[in-house]
Amino acid sequence: LCNGVVFIIKENVSNSLKNFQGLTDEEVVLSKEKYGLNKLTEKKKESLILKILSIFKEPMFLLLIIAASVYFVVGEYSDGIIMLIFVFAVCSIEFIQKAKTDKALEELNKLSSLNVKVIRNKREITISSDDVVVGDIVILEEGDKVPVDGIILYSQSLGVNESCLTGKSVVVYKSKKDDNNNHFK
User: Fold this and answer.
1) How far apart are CA 121 and CA 115, in angstroms?
2) DSSP code at position 80
3) In contact, 162 and 149? CB cutoff 8 Å
4) Longest pairwise C-alpha distance within the chain
5) CA neighbours within 13 Å on the CB side: how many for 80?
């Protein structure tokens, strides 16, 4: 995710928003070229063959296939065939479940993309969190999720729930004075 984004915490600060210009369209393009998009790189999708092979690599399935081959070696062909049918049936069910899970996660990621208010070209606009770039001024209001790392330009009693990062459910209060040192040398 981007570093170098600054925050304004909006709480009856409409007058103070006039002091902030935001990035121009040209600066946004340059920042995207230099730092990239504000999203995690997606993992390359596995091919169909690799997904199927990963299912058969599991120890239980390998053990069942070995047991079925023992039935064939001993001459119990009907038992070996029945065991292989069940192994392939269970593998098929697991493959279908994995595919459904992957699809559900993709849909969840699409739904969870945030819309963020930023100041650009001296105006407050709403963009996708993926489009936030280094240097943007992000405006946060009560209940908003923090879309990127950054420093605080202005706030009034900013409390952040960091439980997804730290596991602690205590609200952490932030202020501009916490960001006085230069993080972006």
Assistant:
1) 18
2) H
3) no
4) 87
5) 13
